[in-house]
Amino acid sequence: MFRLLKAEEIECRIAQVKENGLSLLLYKDARCDMNILDETVSPYKWKREHSRENRNCTVSIWSDDLNQWVSKEDTGTESFTEKEKGVASDSFKRACFNWGIGRELYTSPFIWVSKEDCNIKPKMKGGKAVTDNYGNTIYTCYDKFYVRKITYDGKSIDGLAIINSRTNKVAYTHMPKEKKEKK
After folding, report:
1. pLDDT averaged over the chain?
2. Which of 11, 60, 79, 161 is the most exposed place for a label (fewest CB within 10 A)?
């Protein structure tokens, strides 16, 4: 029912940073979901309702065939910033996943960016490197990444090119041979 996400609708978030590189996660934001709902069913044929202090969101779509609202619901978790807004947004995005919006993100390959393609530094506090409970240095990276290109095989991601915004170079690529991006 819903189309696959376009490259410009997909966000990248750093999941983990190590001395030799970092991993990225792909996600969509609530504005993307709203735009796709508007585009596909029209702004007047979908609605969202929150319950349990915004922890649950029900997204309903009007069915002309059934002459009634059809609903899907899910629960969200708090974000690190703006807890109330974050939980409402997360529950909405999860309910939209239940409708199939952006479900292809679950088929993403593991995204590893080597240290040569990003700026990794030890996390510092008070002029000293921060360590974990085992004395290992904790690393950080402030680079931003975006999806330049994405291709699909059916409903699964089969090609992906991610750019480091700081260097404007390809930081990760996973493309079938005929679709390869140049570094």
Report:
1. 93
2. 79
